[in-house]
Amino acid sequence: STTNQRRPMYPDFGRVTLIEGVGNSSYNAMQLTVEKRFSGGYSIMGNYTWSHAIDNNQGSANKGTGTSVTNPLDQSIDRGTADFDRTHVFNFSGLWELPVHFDNSVTEAILGGWNVTTIISLYSGDPFFVQSGVDNARTGQGGQRADLVGNPDPGDQTKGEKIEEYLPKDAFAQNALGTYGNLGRNVFRDEGFTSLDLGVHKRFLVAEGAYAEFRFEMFNAFNHTNLGGPTTSMTSGNFMKITSAAEPRILQFALRFVF
Questions:
Q1: What integer pLDDT is reported at residue 15 of this predicted model?
Q2: What span, in angstroms and rounded, lies between the C-alpha atoms of 150 and 170?
Q3: Per-residue pLDDT tens over the stretch 200-224
Q4: What is the CA radius of gyration of the chain?
Q5: Which end of the chain is more exposed for a tag (fewer CB within 10 A), N or C?
């Protein structure tokens, strides 16, 4: 509330934005891919990435404004893991043509020639940090981090305990007056993402040059709960609570005509 009164020069001016091209980032990774093209009734493809992305732009975006810098006089305090970084990313997909065929043409048309598809996705969690939620640095803008005052390791937790308090709230305190907080940027991670998608499909010949394709698909087939990240602002009533999750199991039928 005293920001304008504390401006030593030109008190009639509000915030003045300075735009500079001073951000930097780096990305290093090991990327592996395995592929078997369709033969023998099946094909597979898998890829794995082990990586680390680092930048000094809070928000990891090309915002173009000084508000993306916590301390314009020392950008090094914002250097850390990029917001979009995922240490491990694994994807696997496969197609299997079931070796089930029948001599009877009607039975073959209905029960033969089915295909099974699968996609497995495993991702590391997204990084995050704890925000103090107040302007204790007295800079006139937010983005300040909390002080780490205790052990942030929650130990073994049930799913319900993670939802209620992902990290111990008493391990954090609002930054001391005149400081930006001693907690590093993006030093914590949420749970990550795990999903298995399955599908079966078959083509039915309708006429020469025309066919119908029936598909049945399950997304997140095992209905695994992929929790979102916790609320990270200390001034929120939901501080350290998880209030979101990815989609549950979804079943889908589809019929497509090609002519």
A1: 72
A2: 7
A3: 999 888 888 898 999 999 999 999 9
A4: 26
A5: N
Residue 169, token pair as written in the block: 């709230």
| Nearest partner of 118 among 49, 47, 48, 45, judged by Cα | 45
Q: Dig out the tokens for 248 from the structure.
A: 């549950």
**Tens digit of pLDDT for each residue in 47-76?**
999 999 999 877 776 655 555 778 878 888
pLDDT of residue 67: 57
3-state secondary structure the chain: CCCHHHCCCCCCCCCCCCCCCCCCEEEEEEEEEEEEEEECCEEEEEEEEEEEEEECCCCCCCCCCHHHCCCCCCHHHHCEECCCCCCEEEEEEEEEECCCCCCCHHHHHHHCCCEEEEEEEEECCCEECCECCCCCCCCCCCCCECEECCCCCCCCCCHHHHHHCCCCHHHEECCCCCCCCCCCCCCEECCCEEEEEEEEEEEEEEECCEEEEEEEEEECCCCCCCECCEECECCCCCECCECCECCCCEEEEEEEEEC
pLDDT the model gives residue 6: 73
Single-letter amino acid, residue 91: N
Kindly state the tokens that stand for 181. 């907080």
Q: Encoding tokens for residue 104?
A: 């009877």
Tokens of 121: 């996705």
Closest of 59, 105, 104 to residue 83, by C-alpha: 59
